[in-house]
Amino acid sequence: MKKFLKQVLATVVGISLWFLLAIVICIVSVICMSIGDSSTTAVKNGSVMRITLNGVLSERSQEADVMSLLMGGNTEGLGLDQLLAGIDAAAKNDKVEGIYLEVGAFDGGTPAMLQELRQALLKYKQDSGKWIIAYGDIYTQGAYYLCSVADKVMLNPEGMVDWHGLASQPMFYTDLLKKVGVKFQVFKVGKFKSAVEPYIATEMSEPNRQQVTSFLSSIWEQMVEEVGESRSLTAEQLNLMADTFITMQPSQMLVDYHMVDTLTYIDGVRTFLRNRLNLEEGKSIRFVSPADVVADADTDSHDDKIAVFYASGEIVQQVANSIASSEENIVQDEVVRELRKLRENEDIKAVVMRVNSPGGSAFASEQIWRELQLLKEQKPVVVSMGGMAASGGYYISCGASKIFAEPTTLTGSIGIFGLIPDASELLTEKLELHFDVVATNRHSDFGAMGRPFNAEEAALMQAYVERGYDLFTRRVAEGRGLPQDSVDAIGQGRVWTGEQAIQLGLVDQLGNLEDALAEAAKLANLTEYERVNYPEQISWIDRMMQDKPESYFDARLHEALGNLYPMVSTLQMLQYQRVPQQCVFTRLPFELNIR
User: Fold this and answer.
1) Cys staple from 426: which of 4, 181, 246, 353, with CB 3.0 to 4.6 Å?
2) Which domain holds residue 563?
3) Is the pLDDT reported for residue 565 higher than 80?
4) H-type helices in 110-247, by residue range?
């Protein structure tokens, strides 16, 4: 009887598992078919290109991964590349009557990315003479900055415009870490190099406060100037509205103060658009997406090509963790390999390196810099700086033939630091672990977990970091044609905006990606060319096969922890503290935290 019951139970379990597997396969298949359906809406006469501002703006659009879809994540990404291409194509397409900006839960992007998108919308209006209409229930500050270019800005009667100015509120983990028995050993060069402060201090240093005040003021002044020009408001009026926190005032005041043009519900917007398009009552508006308009455009193929190489995210070495393998990072081995391919590709006549990076590994930055110099020996290399190209992001940029930056790009931060956790108190006192050692030489146990660095080891680490800073400033001096002591004077880890950097000789010209492409064509003596984007984006199914399961959960952990995430990710360095090369960074603060 026991044997019979065991067989029955095994059969039931087996059938249940089979049904469960079948359900999962069915769900994944449905998602695969929905993702794989690459059909687009046809662009016909009277179309309106709708841009839905929702989520976070990234450099490149990307297919949603299956894990995110299964777990209820977003199915679409908001990529700056596709938005810019769509706006440009809409300006040239006679079947597109105008652009409708529909604001959802828009978290925005970096100020420079928003600035580039705003410039594209302004150029669209100027070049085509077509209209832009904007509507939102709630305009975040970034969304309002973008939508202020519209011919008509419409707001839900119960909605609001968040207009409050800019602030940076870094979080300091020092006392929290102290409670668990962890402290950080810091080795740095550059009095403005503030990335280490959250781990060793409880407030901003005066040099850091000075630089943050400087770049925030520069960015805010530009936002105010641009919004004021579009809305016929003075800087004094816009600052007064921020100071009185007009966000919390009755929405009618926003109309009275000319922040918005009219208050209406979504049905009123549809009625307004139908009237603008001279549509009969009840006839639906033909909305198309930026992807639809791009697909409808005629694309000419040329033998001569200019590559736009996207280098976005943290600069990391090829290490065995889920973060380094992500497409959201600049992985040393992968980037070097791709740049080498571009160097050897005879059809590629010039390269535009699109950099949007806070930096990262000093060692990886040097390897990428080297490969870019080899590439520059064969063909022009122009850098287009996105939201930020600072620290390691500037390191890999400084040797380019020409450097373009947006006025609000964050760049510079020429400095270097080593940040190595000391968990000896946690391990030996709180957890009461004991360590012993047998060593053949004086430094055989360098970086041992059971103790902090001794004075000699600390001196060796500081010297290592100082050599790294000397190399960094030398690379900048060579690339920018400046004396090394001048680079040191404007270096010291200080962050500059693009507007400030051009006066210091760190960038050549203020401009966007299109400007950089035009310069690359000029340097390569090209009048006609085809733009190709690199590196090639892998499909969702390849990403699913390559990604480790922990990469998805790491991303969800980042979402859940928010500003606490950097502390958790930094503690991962405990496993690398015996390898100084992997603990030395040229990087902006782990979270800039501009809001």
Assistant:
1) 181
2) 178-200+300-539+557-587
3) no
4) 111-128, 141-147, 174-180, 197-200, 206-231, 235-243
